[in-house]
Amino acid sequence: MAAYGSRLSVPAETPTKGALRPILWFLAGLGTYGLSAAHGPMWADSSKLTIYALTPYVPSLNPGDHPGWSLIANLWFHLLAWVSPIRAAHLLSACAGAAAVALIWMVVFKQTRSAARAHTTAAMLLAAHAMWWSSSLAETYAPALALALASLLFEGERTFQSATSGVFAGFAAAVHPLSLVVTFPALVRQRRSVSLWTAFVVGLSPVWLGLFQTMPDPLTGHVSGHAASWGWHVHAFLDPGRAVQGCGIVVALLLLNVGPLGLWGLASGIRHLARPASRPELAVAVVYAAVLCLYAPFRLHLMVLFFVAALLIAVAPHLPRRGWIAHIFIQAAIYVLVPLVLTAAGHDSLGVRRLSDRNNAWYFLCPVKAAEHGPARYAAALLSAAPHGAVILADFNPGAVLALVQRVEHVRPDLHIVPTAVDDANGSSDPAQALAAQIASLSTAGHAVVLAGRWAPYYHPRELERRFGVSLVPCGPGWQVTGPQRAATPRQPPSRG
Questions:
Q1: Which of 29, 60, 46 is nearest to 140 (CA)?
Q2: 443 touches 485 (CB < 8 A)
Q3: CB 166 within 8 A of CB 195
Q4: Most exposed of 53, 124, 314, 363 (fewest Cβ within 10 Å)?
Q5: For residue 293, how many C-alpha atoms fall within 13 Å in the half-sphere facing its CB?
Q6: pLDDT tens across 235-263, in order?
C-alpha cells in the first residue's frame, strides 16, 4: 500500500509533459462547460443553491442544504463581483467540472502510471452526461467531485499528505455527502491516520457546527437542520418498491453516461486490471448503484455522477487515442440526437412534469444550458403580471426561480413570494383544503393571491373550483384567484330532496 499513494506529485515521463497534460484537460473542460453554462436562473435546486450562497446559509446539519457549497460559492461571488451572482454560480460549476476532469487524469495516472488510461478516463468523465449537465448550471455535484478527487490525489503516508487528503474529503462531504462514494475507500485505507481524521472533521465543520446553531433556511424560512431532517430525506426519497424500475433507470443512465466506445474502454480496463487496490472502489460503486435503484427518479440523472466517477477510478478504462477522441464527439452527438428523436416522436415530456417553456427531453438529456431561457422568461412574465401587493403561492420548482429573480434583480419588492406554500399544503391529509385555507386567510387580509401554476398533482385546480368555489383567471404564466371568500369551507352539494 505504500507504493499506492506514496507520492504527492503526479509522476510523468518528463516534468513538462506531466504538468501540461492535466492543464490541457482542464482547459478542455473549461471550454466545454463554460460555453455550455447557463446564463440566467434555472429551475429548482439551482436557484435554491444560489440563494443559499448569497446569504450564505452555513452551517447546517440538513443533508439537502449543502453548507460547503454555500461557503465556497459565497467566496466565489466576491471574486467575481462584477458578474451577476446567477451567472457566477453557473460558472463555478463549469470551473469545478473542468478541475474534476484534470484531477481524475492525475489520480488515474498516479495510480496506474499509464498516460493512455489517464487520457481515456479524463475523456470519459469530460463527456459523461452527469458531469457535463452538472457543470453547466449551479449545482453541488461538480465542486464536490473535484474536492473528492483532490483528496485522492493527496492520499499518502506523510502527515502533510494525509491531513490535506482528509480536509479535502471532509469539505467535499460538506458540499455533497455522497462524495463519500469516491473518498470512502481511501479513508478506510488510511483509517489509522490521526492527522487524516482530524483534518476530515475540520473539513466537515460547515455541517457539524450546525449542532450549535442553524439559521433559518433563506428560501423557506424553516429551521430544518436537525435529526428529523435526515429521517425525512430517507422517507421522502428512498422507496424499496421502485427497485425494479430504478434498476432500469440506473442502467439506462450508465449507458447514457458511458456510451458505446466507453463500454469498450471499460471492458478493456477490466481485462487488463492489475490493481487489487481498486477492488474496494469497485465494491463501493456497486453498493451505491444499488441504493440509487431505490432513489427518487428525478435526481438520478445527477446522482449517478459519483457512481460513474468511482467506476472510472476503479477500472481505469483504456482506449487508443483515436478512440477516446471519437468518444467525446460521439457522446456530444448522442446528447443532441436523442432529445431530437424523442421530440419528433412526441415523447418530449419524458413522463414528468412540464414547466413553462421547458421541453423535458432537451432539458434533461442535453447538457448544454446556454440557450435555456425558459425560467427567466417565466419569472419576468409572472412578476410583471401580478397585481400590486399580491402574494404568490408557488411550489419549489418555480418558487425558487421567482424568489431568486426578485432578490438579485431587485424587481417587484411589493410582491410576497411563498416559494414552497404548495409543497407544504401537499404534505397535509387534504392538500386542496390546506391550499384553500391559505387563500382564504390571505384574501381576508386584503391580499390578491396568485398561484404560480396549475399543475393538477400540486395545485389541485379542479378541486379548488369544485369544492371551494374558487375561480382561476390567467395572470401571465400564473393564475390569479378570484372568489376567495368561499375558500375557507368546502361548497356543499345541493340537496336532492
A1: 46
A2: yes
A3: yes
A4: 363
A5: 14
A6: 767 788 888 998 999 999 999 999 999 99
Grid cell listed for 477 = 404564466
- Residue 123 DSSP SS3: helix
Contact 97, 134 (CB under 8 A): yes
Q: How confident is the model at residue 472 (pLDDT cuts 50, 70, 90)?
A: very high
From the number of C-beta atoms within 10 Å of its C-beta (0-12, 13-18, 19+), residue 236 rates as exposed
Residues 6+ apart with CB under 8 A from 215: 55, 57, 60, 223
Q: Residue 451 has what DSSP assignment?
A: E
- If pLDDT is split at 50, 70 and 90, which confidence band does 35 have? very high
SS3 137: coil
3 state SS of 479: strand
What does the DSSP assignment read for 177-193? GGGHHHHHHHHHHTTT-
Q: What confidence tier does 487 reach under pLDDT thresholds 50, 70, 90?
A: very low
Calpha distance 176→219 (Å, rounded): 19
The rounded distance, in Å, linking the Cα atoms of 207 and 214 is 10
Encode pLDDT of 367-397 as tens digits: 999 999 999 999 999 999 999 999 999 999 9
* pTM score, whole prediction: 0.92
Give 440-464 pLDDT, tens digit per residue: 999 989 999 999 999 999 999 999 9
Question: Which pLDDT value is given to residue 137?
Answer: 97
| Residue at 382: amino acid letter | L
Q: In this structure, are residues 382 and 478 in contact, taking their beta carbons and an 8 Å threshold? A: yes
Of 371, 313, 268, the closest CA to residue 125 belongs to 313
Q: Which residues contact 386 (CB under 8 A, 6 or more apart)?
A: 392, 412, 415, 448, 450, 475, 476, 478, 480
SS3 letters for 22-75?
HHHHHHHHHHHHHHHCCCCCCCCHHHHHHHHHHCCCCCCCCCCCCHHHHHHHHH
The pLDDT value recorded for residue 191 is 84
Nearest to 447 by CA among 421, 411, 429: 421
- In this prediction, residue 275 carries a pLDDT of 57
Query: Given the DSSP bridges, would you call strands 449-451 and 416-418 parallel, antiparallel or unpaired?
Result: unpaired
269-281 confidence digits (pLDDT tens): 876 654 555 678 8
Average pLDDT, the chain: 89
Residue 275 and residue 320 in contact, taking contact as beta carbons nearer than 8 Å: no
CA-atom Rg of the chain in angstroms: 24
At 41, give phi and psi (nearest 5°): -65, 150
Q: From residue 32, how far is each of 101, 418, 462 by CA, in Å?
A: 11, 36, 45
